[in-house]
Specification:
By secondary structure, the chain is α/β, with parallel strands linked by helices. It has one domain (about 1-140): 3-Layer(aba) Sandwich (Ribose 5-phosphate Isomerase B, Chain: A). Helix content is about 45%, strand content about 15%. The chain has helices spanning about 10-25, 45-55, 70-75, 90-100, 115-125, 135-140, and strands at about 1-5, 30, 60-65, 85, 105-110. Helix 1 (about 10-25) packs across helix 5. The chain binds D-ribose. D-ribose binds next to helix 3. Keywords: Isomerase, Lactose metabolism. InterPro entries: RpiB (IPR004785), RpiB_LacA_LacB (IPR003500), RpiB_LacA_LacB_sf (IPR036569). Belongs to the LacAB/RpiB family. This is Ribose 5-phosphate isomerase B.
């Protein structure tokens, strides 16, 4: 499995922490930026980089981080085939893989603590899409 990860300036520190967490878990990732917390950048550019990586099948799924996770999710979800979920708790992280087959998880550096953010990523990565009626509902969204 390979993961695309990106943030704006408001999510840079959490991105770096999650990269270390992915490495500890021996999970391959590609960092699409940004490269500094002190330089203001536009989150839609980073959401699009990760969406493109998924849609071209260069990676399997993605992690996007901004201050709230909201701007990233709004931007990424403009792409057909992208299901980006803003998640702030472990239950929802598991459910959004099992039910929504979310292929991007969006995190909020200014809201969620580091330890919880790592648990959220783990819960999402370790869950399995349940298909069946959930696939029908995803098909409804896509169509
Ligand atoms: C950047 O200041 C902030 O708007 C961004 O990180 C994010 O919260 C947007 O949704």
């Amino acid at each position: 499995m390979k993961i695309a990860i990106a943030s704006n300036h408001g999510g840079f520190e959490l991105k770096e922490l999650l990269k270390a967490h992915l490495s500890e878990r021996d999970i391959d990732y590609e960092d699409f930026g940004t490269t500094a917390a002190m330089v203001s950048v536009d989150y839609p550019n980073y959401a699009q980089k990760v969406a493109n990586a998924i849609l071209t099948e260069a990676v399997d799924c993605g992690i996007l981080i901004c201050g709230t996770g909201i701007g990233m999710s709004i931007a990424a979800n403009r792409n057909k085939g992208i299901r980006a979920a803003v998640v702030g708790d472990v239950f929802s992280a598991k459910a959004t893989k099992e039910h929504n087959n979310a292929n991007i998880i969006c995190l909020d550096q200014r809201v969620t603590g580091d330890g919880l953010a790592q648990m959220i990523v783990d819960a999402w990565l370790d869950a399995t899409f349940q298909g069946k009626r959930h696939q029908n509902r995803i098909d409804m969204i896509e169509n």
